[in-house]
Structures are given as C-alpha cells and as structure tokens.
Amino acid sequence: MQVNHKKYLKIILKKVIAFIFTIFFLIIGSFYAIISEVQKETFDIQYSKNPEASAKFANAMEYRIIIESLHKYLNYDNFIMIFLINQMNDKFKEGKELLPKDSIEDILWWMILNRNMFFKSDDLSYAKYVTNTYKDEFFNEIYSMIERLPYGKNYFDNIELNQNRFATMLRLVSIYTDLDIDRFIYYLKEESNKHDEIYKHLDMAYKRYFDSQKSKEYFYYIYINTVIMLHAKDIYLNLQGDENGKMIEPAIIPQDLCYKKDIFEIYDNFQKIIDYVKTTKNYSSSLSGTSLEILGVLENSCPNEKELRKKIQAEIDEINKNKKGVVNAK
Question: Whole-model pTM?
Fold first, then answer.
C-alpha cells in the first residue's frame, strides 16, 4: 500500500500551525488578564460619571499595551497588529460615542493610548503608519482636539487624566505642527495661517490646566519653546537662499521681519524661560534645542535689539554652566 506523504505532511503542518496559534492565544489571554487587573487599579471607573464610556476606553488601553509588547517582534502593518490596532480604535470610538458633547475625556484617553507609540525618538514607525493610513483625516481630527480640549470638561475623576491635560495639549500641537520634517514643512507652507488660533487655544489650556500638571518644570519649558516655535513661523518661511535655492550660511532672514510683533514675542518668551529656570530649585537641565537656533538667526540678521540678544544669550550660557541634564525641545 502506497503512503501519501503529501497528505500526511499537510495534516502534520495543520496540527503544528494550530498548536502554535493555541499557545500564542493562551499567552495573549494570560497577558490580557494581568493587564485588566492593572487597568482596574489605575483607572477605577467607579469615579467616572460616564462609566460605560470609561470602561470602553480602558478596554482600548488593554489592546494598546498588547500592541506595544508585540511591536518588539512585529511591525505595525503586520496583519495581527492591524487587527489589534483596529480593535483598539473601535473600542475608543465606542467610548467616545457614549460621552456628553462637552466632555474631553476622549481626548485625554486618545493621548494615553497613543503617546508611547507616537513620541519615540528612535522609532517613528507608528506615526508613519497612522499618517499614511489616515492622511488628512488624521490631522483634521488632531486639530479638532486642539479646538475642544481647553474648553470642555472631564467627568472622570482620575489623577492620570487630570494631571496630564496640559501635557496632552502640548503633544497635540506638536503632532499637528511638526510631527516630522515633512509635516513641519507642510504646516509652514499650507497651514501656518492657523498660527493665531492654535496659540489662542494653547494659551487657554495653559491658563486652565497648568496648575494641575505634574512635572511642571519640564512642561513649562516645553510650553515656552512651543510658543517660540509658533511665533517663529515667518522666520522659517523667509530663510534666505542663493540663486539655486540652497539656504545661505549662516542662516539669515530679511531685515524687515526683525521689527514684527512675533519677533518681540520671541524675545519675551526667552526671558520668561530664563527667569523661570533661574528661580526654580527643581529644574536641573540646561537649555538647548531649535529655539536657540532661532536666536542665532536673529543675531545674524537683525540690526536692532543687539543688547537684548546679548543679555539673553549671556543668561542662557550662565544657566547651562550650572545645570547638569539637557532638555532638548523641538
């Protein structure tokens, strides 16, 4: 009797695949159960006025933790990851639909779900996956969150949510204006007319939420740098180049820009961060980042306010002599 080797190989292969998937889902199931217990402690929905919605968001968080863990082995565009990301997003949408119109709880949960995957300096693959998948729809939604966050209410009395409202606003503005270099260039050329509105919403978020923000020293520094970057839009749009379009070194701008209100706002905000760092005992970082490059462009270009810039630079140098770490703001 002749043995059908192909038939037996197919049977064995099916059993091996079934065994692998069984082990995989057993591990995921156990991990999911552990996560659920941790989530109950961190986000106790008995303190939510919309417990059904908050439960959906907490469920989405469980998927997010699994996604993060699996990303060590799988890319975000893997079919398993796509399935899990869709499940996370579906739970988030279900929770959002259950909230009252004036609630901002969905925005705070969105940031908790996404911040660890978006803000990794050594891994921007999730940000690229999301922006490539949803394109303009994604950035329109981010702008809608920027418009809503400073004016709504959070009906879930939870420390993690309440102490990160201002940080959430800063991160939303960062995603919208300079998620990566391509987005930054597009924003400057196509959407910098929204500068005043974004600044208005950010300022309101600062007034409402900064006092309850944890890690105030760090986020105040990021806030002032963000304000400087918003005021610097005309600098970036007008950096001068040669006849071939290559930027002139050292970087310069037309001198008429040196007298605009935005430029004086930049000087004022440099002084704010200097005064804050000098009077804050808990702040131990030096000052660095792109905002200091802006100061350099002004020094190269502007005949006015030379003494003011000299004073600002001297104070920054003095701070950096006495500080240990570095806070590098975009």
Answer: 0.82
CA 221 to each of CA 65, 138, 249, 270: distance values in angstroms, whole numbers, following the listed order: 29, 27, 28, 10
Say which DSSP state 249 is in: S
Low-confidence ranges of the chain (pLDDT < 50): 1, 30, 34, 37-38, 41, 326-330
Neighbours of 266 (CB within 10 A): 23
**DSSP labels for 3-41?**
--HHHHHHHHHHHHHHHHHHHHHHHHHHHHHHHHHHHHH
> What are the structure tokens assigned to 296, written together?
């350099």
Q: Is the backbone peptide bond immediately before 250 cis, with ω within 30 degrees of 0?
A: yes
| Maximum CA extent, the chain | 100
Count of positions (residues) in the chain: 330
Nearest CA to 166 out of 100, 228, 121, 104 is that of: 104
Phi, psi (rounded to 5 degrees) for 254: -60, 140
Q: What span, in angstroms and rounded, lies between the C-alpha atoms of 204 and 209?
A: 8
Burial group, residue 152, by CB count within 10 angstroms (0-12, 13-18, 19+): buried
Identify the bridge partners of residue 286 per DSSP, sorted by sequence position: 326
CB atoms within 10 A of CB 12: 10
For residue 291, the tally of other CB atoms under 10 A from its CB is: 22
Beta bridge partners of residue 48, listed in sequence order:
156
State how beta strands 325-329 and 285-289 pair: parallel
What span, in angstroms and rounded, lies between the C-alpha atoms of 41 and 231?
42
- Backbone φ and ψ of 233, nearest 5°: -60, -40
pLDDT of amino acid 192: 83
